[in-house]
Specification:
Layout: H1 6-19, H2 31-40, H3 57-60, H4 68-84, E1 92-93, E2 99-100
Antiparallel strand pairs: 1-2
Length: about 110
């Protein structure tokens, strides 16, 4: 099992999203824990406009309970999968294989 340096991973995630904010959707339902972790690390709207308080309770509830390391690992795997094999309609698969659309109202329509 690979060790994830949480601070570095979150800083890199923030930089990727600053460069292309719409890519938050590539995290699929794991966007919600990633967003929460970014905020908990001290990042906010001053660093990335979409780091407000909005959370879609329905898609957030689809995230399985895991520890920090496993959550990050699965979120980054989801990101890579969705970047490599995007669905043309912008949907992503949830952990059960159902298609969902992740929209963060803090992203202002992205």
């Amino acid at each position: 099992m690979n060790h994830i340096d949480v601070d570095t991973a979150l800083r890199n995630t923030l930089q990727q999203l600053q460069a292309d904010p719409v890519r938050y959707r590539l995290f699929g339902v794991y966007w919600w824990p990633i967003k929460a972790l970014l905020k908990r690390a001290g990042y906010g709207p001053d660093q990335l406009f979409m780091l407000g308080d909005y959370q879609d309770a329905g898609t957030a509830a689809l995230v399985p309970k895991m520890d920090l390391h496993d959550t990050l690992q699965v979120a980054f795997e989801e990101y890579a999968q969705n970047a490599a094999y995007p669905h043309s309609d912008g949907t992503v698969e949830d952990p059960d294989g159902d298609m969902v659309l992740v929209i963060d109202e803090d992203a202002g329509g992205l």
